[in-house]
Amino acid sequence: MIIVGGVYREECVRPHWSRIFGSAGRAAVALSALSPGSHLVAHAYTGWAEDVRQSMHGLGVTTDLREIISDVAFHYFHPLSISELVGAPDSPLPPLSASGDVILRFGMVEGDAAVSARRAVYDPQHPSAALLFHANGSTAKELAVVLNEVELEYGADSGDIWNYEIARDRFNADVIVVKRGPLGAVVMQPGGNIRIPAYRSEAVFKLGSGDIFSAVFAHLWGEREWPAAKAADFASRAVARYVSTRGTQVSLEGLEDLAPHAGGDAAGRIYIAAPFFTLSQRWLVDEMRGCLAMLGGDTFSPIHDVGAYGGSDYIAGKDLDGLRSCNTVLAVIDGEDAGTLFEIGYARNFGIPVVALAEAPRPESLTMLEGTGCTITDDFTTAVYGAIWSSLR
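Structure tokens predicted for PfkB family carbohydrate kinase (393 residues):
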């Protein structure tokens, strides 16, 4: 496998993460055991390019690194936050190039890459690049485009974006796979699209999950020539293992034993139970609400949907009316806010599942939550994904 794309520094505040990966770097590591002798073509900052070469060499991956003076990095506050791009070149660099049997090409910050392959997989990494595989002269006898929903929707006209024939003509591709985060993926093909489920994981470390999906799909569809739907299904399974363990090297062993998330393919309504009386509390509620919406969830947030005025009877009645209309509760229990704890108990009395974020709880404060079947985590992204999965209908 030839992997072409970006190798970047990644920084995250919570959970702490400081690594040199980027999409192409992570994909090369992921494929090192699945596809021995893989080859990485990328730009790399002069200050750590040799580290990348040595690390890849230790995994059996050969490299063709074009050294640059830009230390390109993506900074995240948490894995669902909008990243801050630091150190990008002021103007595009000369394009990379590669040719071979099977190529996985990622969109890049520094510029572009022209590739020629029998089978190519293209992950654009940005909406504006989604239609551009062929624009720079890249060729492939068979092309699969792996992208997310935002990239699928970008620039679409009024036609049905989920229609295979329309998408095939837009992307000039044989296979289109749409990554949908906690909702799994969709393989678009003649005769009807195939939904690929997300698979169960105890934790969700989202950074790089899409890179793992694209890498495993490229290997199974491109090199092993599995049907696209089967390749995408195993890619989704590999993602579940990665987000749970952060283990970047992929093995197919045991993936068939993973269980999919039950429920439908659409997120339901999620009640946000949390205090909102200080700036930090309000920020967290707003962040949760925005992330849930970004992932396809509908939310009921008392401070947004009811407000803080009108008297106790009015506020409590409206809040609980909203809670009963929801499929799931996402709660913040740090600080043990009385209203939040009441809402959790009220929800459990009605059989509504609760996912609780508890970053710094007193152990004794968890007794009733654990005893009534609440899901408890100390990780923000895991809590948000857990609420989406719990609400599926």
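The chain has twelve helices and 18 strands.
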